[in-house]
Amino acid sequence: MLIYFDFFQYIFSLVVLLVAECVLTLFAIICPQYLGLAIDKDDLVTLWQRNYGVPGKEQMTVAIDLIQTKFECCGALSGTEYSISWWNLKELAAPNLLVPFSCCVQGENKSYLDPSPLNNTLCQEKEMDNYRLARHVEVRYLTL
Fold first, then answer.
1. How far is CA 83 from its chain centroid?
2. Residues near 49 by Cβ (< 8 Å), separated by ≥ 6?
3. Quick one: angle between helices 41-51 and 58-70, nearest 10?
4. Torsion of CA 15, 20, 26, 32, to 10 degrees
5. What is the pLDDT, as a whole number, of residue 5?
6. Quick one: pLDDT at residue 90?
7. What sections of the protein cross the membrane (predicted)?
8. Contact (CB, 8 A) for 98 and 128
9. CB 117 within 8 A of CB 123
10. pTM of the prediction?
């Protein structure tokens, strides 16, 4: 009798856990913001602007460079975010840089740790018509 009870209790526990897991998965898919899983575009831009290139935030800088190199994009929503970022405003970047090198179209190397743009001069132009071929402009913002 004891073995039968333990087996029944085990199966019941598995079913309860499976149902709970399914309910939580559905809840996460339907309402991710309640679980802290949703990404707000404004928060993402603010995070990007306050952490890129800032001393003590090297891991964030490397992560952003990796994202921009791998997905061939620039900024969270566009490269113009860097003009009002701490990286630019606190003059942590070189004076002639409008966007990081990881925003630029890369050579064959495509290293996010040491980006080498094909044409750095065109990439740092202010007008989109001038930098379109040298800087990544497509938005790759993904939602969960």
1. 18
2. 81, 82, 84, 85, 86, 87
3. 120
4. -160
5. 66
6. 83
7. 7-30
8. no
9. yes
10. 0.70
What pLDDT sits at residue 80?
Answer: 87
**Which residues, 6 or more positions from 65, have their beta carbon under 8 angstroms from its beta carbon?**
100, 102, 112, 113, 115
Contacts of 113 (CB under 8 A, 6+ apart): 62, 65
Residue 41 and residue 76 in contact, taking contact as beta carbons nearer than 8 Å: yes
- pLDDT attached to residue 132: 86
Return the number of other C-beta atoms located less than 10 Å from residue 87's C-beta.
25
Question: Nearest-CA neighbor of 122 among 142, 96, 140, 141?
Answer: 96
Q: Is the dihedral of CA 89, 94, 95, 98 positive or negative?
A: negative
List the beta bridge partners of residue 117: 106
